[in-house]
Amino acid sequence: AKELGRNNYQWYSMEMERKMSRSLLIENGLKTALKHHRFHLVFQPQIHMLNEELTGVEVLLRYEHPELGSISPIEFIPLCEQTGIIDEVTHWILTEAVFHQLEWKRKQYPRVKMAINISPLTIEKKGFVQYVKNLVERTGVDPSLFEFEITEDAFMNFTEEVKSHMLELQNLGIRIALDDFGSGYSSLKQLKDLPIDKIKIDRTFIQNVPAIERDQAIIESILDLTSRLNNEIICEGVETKEQVDYLITQNCLYAQGYYYSKPVNSTELEERWFKKMQK
Ligand code: C2E
Ligand code: CA
Ligand code: CA
Ligand code: CA
């Protein structure tokens, strides 16, 4: 047993080392990623299920590491947060997003709202609201086209600063959405305490409906609760026709998920969605 213990320990430390060096490799890459154009944005449609019309898109960040290739944001966003580059990365995302909005306006596509994920670490910063304000003033972009999606996590809870900055952003005309509602740290406490315009129900609650009855009871209670709050509600991770039909019977009208579209680049978004809308 002692022998096994030692082997396990060795295996464990080797595994740790392997993970560490991958993280270090990614961290190093991230430091120069902005300069080397290794980030790009993709867009996932948000749909009104009754008429299948596009109402908005969620902006999602993609990162290509020079040696490791494409890396999931689930892995690299926390590294951006830990190394402190998340603010700069978010500024880049916002500038890029505004650029796209102005471009779409110039091309006379219909208005499509953009949901952008913002780390609570960034919202908390003193200069963030001013940064957004300047960006809006400098470019003349319509701030009501933007919605900031936020989630609390293990390392960052919503402080008084976060709350007051949310209010300031709302005063600028930007909407606030509570992301991943019902999962982990995104819960009733946030609904009670935060200025929220929209609730995004986590995909774990959509995954097994209508198949599993217990899950039906849960999602129906969530919808019942959230629908009383005068917030817009959207379900994420909608993958099947059965889910769409079921959610409509539950009076939930907005969805995002692979059933409608995976995240696509801006060219595909224009070709597949905007041009159709113009006709
Ligand atoms: P999230 O904000 O919950 O984003 C939704 C994730 O679910 C996206 O993964 C999306 O591709 C995926 N998804 C969409 N529809 C479906 C579906 O029908 N089924 C399944 N199984 N998955 C679906 P992605 O792009 O890998 O992003 C993962 C997470 O990384 C995001 O979760 C968000 O927390 C974070 N993230 C991504 N981009 C950014 C960003 O620009 N800034 C920040 N701060 N975080 C970001
Ligand atoms: Ca999100
Ligand atoms: Ca989400
Ligand atoms: Ca998430």
What tags apply to this protein structure?
279 residues, alpha/beta, eight-stranded mixed beta barrel, 10 helices, 49% helix, binds ligand C2E, binds calcium ion
What does this structure look like?
- The protein is α/β, with parallel strands linked by helices and 279 residues long.
- It contains 10 helices and 9 strands.
- Strand 5 (146-150), helix 6 and strand 6 form a beta-alpha-beta unit.
- Helix 3 (86-106) runs parallel beside helix 5 (128-139).
- The longest helix has 32 residues, at 2-33.
- It starts with a helix and ends with a helix.
- The model has no long low-confidence stretch (mean pLDDT 93).
- Bound molecules: ligand C2E and calcium ion (CA) (3 copies).
- Residues 151, 179-180 line the site of one calcium ion.
- It comes from Falsibacillus pallidus.
How are the SSEs placed, and which strands pair?
Layout: H1 2-33, E1 39-48, E2 53-65, E3 69-71, H2 73-83, H3 86-106, E4 113-117, H4 120-124, H5 128-139, E5 146-150, H6 160-172, E6 175-181, H7 188-193, E7 198-201, H8 213-227, E8 232-236, H9 241-249, E9 254-256, H10 266-278
Parallel strand pairs: 2-4, 4-5, 5-6, 6-7, 7-8, 8-9
Antiparallel strand pairs: 1-2, 1-9, 2-3
Helix pairs in contact: 1-2, 3-5, 5-6
The structure holds ligand C2E and calcium ion (3 copies).
One calcium ion binds at residues 179-180, 200, 236.
Domain EAL: 23-277
Organism: Falsibacillus pallidus
Protein name: PAS domain S-box-containing protein/diguanylate cyclase (GGDEF)-like protein
